[in-house]
Write a structure and sequence with these properties.
alpha/beta; three-stranded parallel beta sheet; 3 helices; globular; binds flavin-adenine dinucleotide; about 100 residues; three-stranded antiparallel beta sheet; FAD/NAD(P)-binding domain
């Protein structure tokens, strides 16, 4: 990624979905030392492109799963996002949990 990131004090970014797009955004935020939460309904990123290799190399399948918590620590929350309340700047997860932006 070549874009510049400007830091705004008091801003907390919530990234919904840890797919290729989400993890790229979260990784950039992490490397810039910015406050963020990555939310995904699964506990691990599945590198589906690498899954093609797993289909021909025995034992490789497990390596196509990369646990979010190992990469993003406490900045990762597992849950299903149900809606985003833009007025209150909160993300509501299934079960009523809330993550603030
Ligand atoms: C087998 C396979 C091989 C592929 N090979 C290639 C390739 O060689 N080259 C290429 O360019 N592309 C390839 N693709 C396509 C590529 O994987 C997609 O374009 C890419 O994954 C899209 O990224 P994304 O971040 O937009 O979405 P996704 O990767 O689909 O990520 C979305 C994430 O959001 C999470 N999520 C969804 N809903 C919620 C919710 N309500 N709350 C919380 N989390 C949620 C999901 O769990 C998921 O982790 C392949 C796809 C497949 C299936």
């Amino acid at each position: 990624m070549g874009g510049q990131v400007s830091s705004v004090e008091g801003v907390h970014v919530v990234v919904v979905g840890g797919g290729f797009g989400g993890i790229a955004a979260a990784q950039q935020l992490k490397s810039e030392g910015l406050s963020f939460t990555l939310i995904d309904l699964r506990d691990a990123f599945h590198h589906n492109v690498a899954a093609l290799r797993a289909s021909v190399q025995p034992g490789f399948a497990q390596r196509t799963f990369i646990p979010y918590a190992e990469t993003f620590g406490d900045s990762f929350v597992q849950g299903r996002v149900e809606r985003v309340d833009t007025e209150r700047q909160t993300v509501i997860l299934q079960g009523g949990r809330v993550s603030s932006c």
